[in-house]
Amino acid sequence: MDSAFRFDVIYSYTRAQALADGVLVDAGPIAREAGYRWPVALTAGLYNGFIVPSPRLIDEGQSATGRLWDLLMVLRHTIIKASDSSRVAFQVLFLMTPETEPELVDLVAVCGPGDDGSPVLTVMLPNED
């Protein structure tokens, strides 16, 4: 190969490292139960900000499992309706405070290669990458 096209890797950060560090949260068995064939992960900002309910919401019957399931179902329908694209934008309603209206939250899902080149899905807030 011509030396003009060789590049030395200065730094790399794998998906496995991001999962181990908590930067990404694995949707694991819930995603598989929801029908996803590829690994699905959420950014920590999305997971901690919207999936994990506050103690007051837990008292109202909200759970991280239920909120994640809702997100995955909306995403699944969005993907089915989408044209061939590696990136989809979608919205999910999340109850953030008891006795208020649910909040419509903009989200993005990206399909790309995982550490071994196999497809993976990553769900995030629009300002994350």
Model description:
- With 129 residues, this protein is α+β, with helices and mostly antiparallel strands.
- It has one domain (22-124).
- It has 5 helices and 5 strands, in the order H-E-H-E-H-H-H-E-E-E.
- It has a 5-stranded mixed sheet with strand order 1-2-5-4-3.
- Strand 4 and strand 5 (119-124) form a beta hairpin.
- The longest helix is centred in the middle third of the chain and has 18 residues, at 64-81.
- The chain is globular.
- The two termini are 32 Å apart.
- The mean pLDDT is 94.
Instruction: Indicate the proportion of strand residues.
Output: 15-25%
Structural category is alpha+beta
Strand order of the largest sheet: 1-2-5-4-3
Shape: globular
Low-confidence stretches: none
Radius of gyration: 17 Å
Whole-number count of domains? 1
Helix content: 25-40%
Order of helices and strands: HEHEHHHEEE
Supply the number of helical segments: 5
Number of strands: 5
Gap from first CA to last CA: 32 Å
Largest sheet: 5 strands, mixed
What is the residue-mean pLDDT, rounded to a whole number? 94
Describe, in short, the structure shown.
It is built from five helices and five strands. The chain is an alpha+beta fold.
Which short descriptors sum up this protein?
about 130 residues, alpha+beta, 5-stranded mixed β-sheet, 5 strands, about 35% helix, globular
